[in-house]
Amino acid sequence: MPMEQRAKYTRITLDKAYRLEKQINEFFEITRYNLQQIKLEKETIDLYYMLVQMTDEFYPILSEKGNTAVLHADENLTVYGDPVKLARVFNNILKNAAAYSFPNTEIDIFAEETKGYIKIVFQNQGNTIPPDKLAAIFEKFYRLDEARTAGTGGSGLGLSIAKEIVTLHGGTIVAQSKDNTVAFTVSLPVTH
Length: 192
Prior knowledge:
alpha+beta; about 45% helix
């Protein structure tokens, strides 16, 4: 086999191996959540700063399609929770928003304290998700678009893991979609 072709196939094999390793790790992680073996290390988190940092990290990914992320929140907003786990939740939601947003649109992130809860909403402009698919979006291994499964598509565990983390925090996560708008709302209790 020519050296060029051998290098190409080796690179493809390595990429597939890395993807498989990532999927296996996510599978073990979701199993641990289901068995309640995850320990939360809660502290008071500067939520505003966490979300600002996250939007900055996503800037290169968003700018490829002309998208931006805009944060609407009080600078003094805090939440009590596990910072590493909650960052994972917000990262998974923002990753989906980036993947499914129409080009040259804003992803709005709203965060506020209301009725004993911190409510964080990630809203983007993208194809309306039909009600039957919306109902299944937090299920393990569910992928909205089968075309994304090859190549860049995820394992279908991101939103399921996000739901497990939010539930362990005593909160809720819901998805809504209509008129080419998709919104994920995370509610977390204010109480320590």
